[in-house]
Amino acid sequence: MRNELTLSIEGMHCEACVRRVTAALQGVEGVKVGSVEVGSAKTTFDSNQTSAEEIAAAVNRIGFSAHVEK
Fold first, then answer.
1. What is the residue range of 53's domain?
2. Fewer CB within 10 A of the terminal residue: the chain, N end or C end?
3. Cβ–Cβ under 8 Å, residues 59 and 7
4. How many domains is the chain built from?
C-alpha cells in the first residue's frame, strides 16, 4: 500500500542539503521521492517495506532533524 508522507526538516540551508536529503530518502527501500526543498520533503512509500518513522530516521542519520507532518 502506498502512503504519502511530508517531512518537516530542520537544519537544511542550501542545494547541497537538498541533494543529501534526496540521496538519503532514495536509499530507503520502498520510498519514491516526490520533492525535496529546503526545510521539507514529500514522498510516497510502500508501508510493506518501510514506515514513516524509518524514513525520518534516515534523514536524521545524516545530521538533520526530520519530523513527520500529520
1. 2-68
2. C
3. yes
4. 1
Cβ-based neighbour number of residue 38 at 10 Å = 13
Q: What is the CATH number of the domain that holds 11?
A: 3.30.70.100
Q: Tell me the pTM.
A: 0.95
The three three-digit cell numbers of residue 12, written as one number: 537544511
Tell the burial category of 22 from Cβ atoms under 10 Å away from its Cβ (0-12, 13-18, 19+).
Answer: middle
Place of cell 520510498: 31
Q: What is the pLDDT of residues 19-69, one digit of tens each?
A: 999 999 999 999 999 999 999 999 999 999 999 999 999 999 999 999 999
Give the start-end residues of each E strand in 1-70. Answer: 2-10, 31-37, 40-46, 65-68
